[in-house]
Design brief:
single chain; 663 residues; mainly beta; 22-stranded antiparallel beta barrel; 3 helices; 2% helix
Length: 663
Amino acid sequence: MSTLPARKVEEYHLWNGKDLAAIVPNLYAANPGDNRNVVSIRGIATTSYDPAVVTYIDGVSQFGLDTYIAQLLDIERIEVLRGPQGTLYGRNAMGGVINIITRQPGNTSSGYVRADIGNYGLQRYGFGLRTALVENRLFLGAAGMYDQTDGYYTNVFDDSDYDQAQSFMGNYYLKYLASSRWSLTLNVKHDQNRNQGAFPLVSSPEEALENPFDVNQNAVTDLVDKVFNASLSANYYGEAVNFSSQTAWQSNHRYYTQPIDGDFSPADIYSIINNYGRDWNNVKVLTQEFRFSSTGSDDSPFEWTAGLYGFYQDNPVRQGTHLGKDVEFADMDPSMANTTTITTNEGSGFGVAVYGQGTYRLTEKLAITAGLRYDHEEKELSVKGEFLQGEQPPMIIQPDTAADAGFNAFSPKLSLAYDLSERHHTYLTYSRGFRAGGITQYSGQPNQPPLYSYEPEYSNNFEAGIKNMLAGGKLRLNFSAFYMKVTDAQVPTLVLPQAITITRNVGELESKGLEMEVAATPLKGLEAAWNFGYTDAVYTSLQVPGEEGTLNLDGNRQLFTPNATSMLSLQYTYTPPSHPGIQLIAGGQWQYTGSQYFDLKNTIEQAGYYLFHARAGVATGKFEVFAWGRNILDKTYIDYAYDFRAAHLGDPGTFGVSVTARL
């Protein structure tokens, strides 16, 4: 596990979950162009709406790519657990867990206001307030942030800023201590986004690199993204057993106000429509978890956690593919102009799980941990296909069809930990991971079956490591090695122009690698950290169906998986003897992301690249002023690419000033 406290979150300029890329060994995160993050850890990559790396925010699982909040606000700490964590964290924790904890209110009143101003029209304003409404009994916390930017891209079609964006995010707490043992916490989060030019993509990586941050699209629209999360948790702290209950609700209504360009060109060929009212493209998820654990307050050598978990998901999707007046450029009959194919997928699912994990200390130095989780899920999907031409009534091309599927998964874990001394610890772990199965959506393609299910993806994982604290606590050195074997690998294929992902179990993957974390304070005021990760993730078997037959891709590397990540961080803090209340701070990070592929055929590659970030400023007990720069050498690189070659660039060089006042 890697832990980033609030101070490191500020130092590393972590404003979005994707900023964790390369800061944590063997973690890669990217924006595919629509403000949703795709994350991979150790070669386990998110390639569908069921993520392979699960994100928790304040104890609530961000169920899928549609319902999570990517921006970071008022952070207490971030924990990244690498490798399967299913026994405690559940479904889709196959690659690991990103656990985000925000600041919560208490008896001590505190708060802040902050402003960030930068190039590309960046304006970012935030506040936070935590206080006791009734001392020792009732507490209130609130944090909010508004940000806007002119975007990085220019649309040469009409010479306009393409990806202007505005968002407002909030995080609110109401906490009640009913007694010394009982507490209730209501937490509400929301993130309202409006992007005037989502998917700033060009037709190929070569074009993206040759003409950086230029797009040429005729259909321009606004992406409206409304995320709402709420949870109610109850906690009991007993003499023998602790108990917690958490009920959470998540929803996301996401749509384009007008059709969006589907061919990423100035021609009017394909455009995508999904604005069909609030009943469509509005994902809703309800989860409930009960957890019991030992208190750890006695001298017992045994500590344990057990629980029950359940969820229900409703996912109604309606999407239209419109053919414009330039259909002849796509070698289609001109009579197909002004026609629309509408696909309707009404999906739902529910699942239950029971889990337990315990650690028994065999001796003062040797401990064994064992865990097991059982998951059962049921999914249903009904589909319909319609064809519209001009003002004529719709024609049914795919009658109402329904399918259901069920899945079961066992996730065991076994670990041995041995304390060589108080400052040297070793461990050896086996764990099994899984990613939930599902039912593939109807794509509207006549050569595709309307519905079929795909099975869960499984992995067997082995890890060994050693953790050391040296030089009287001034040097921390952690080292780990891992090997994993993935079976029934879920391989997605994006069908265009419908923009529907078809998923099949057609692969086996082997991933192995090394990780190292070093942190030191060699001199007074100087902090240094170096993280390194190496991953070799290769498909030992990969037979992908295609229009021209089955493709044999055995031996190809996993997509969205750099072969190496590295970060060197230095920060120096100087306190003038004549002004002990003032700190002068300067620091920076050097990040390396190794070569990676963005398609299973391994034809779209981004070579390894370096990024440099820096900041310098003054801090007192109440105020902070920092100047900062991200990607200060203005490196141009591919951040994400689709298997049909459309590419999205990483952020260019950005510079700004941040001012914070603390209350």
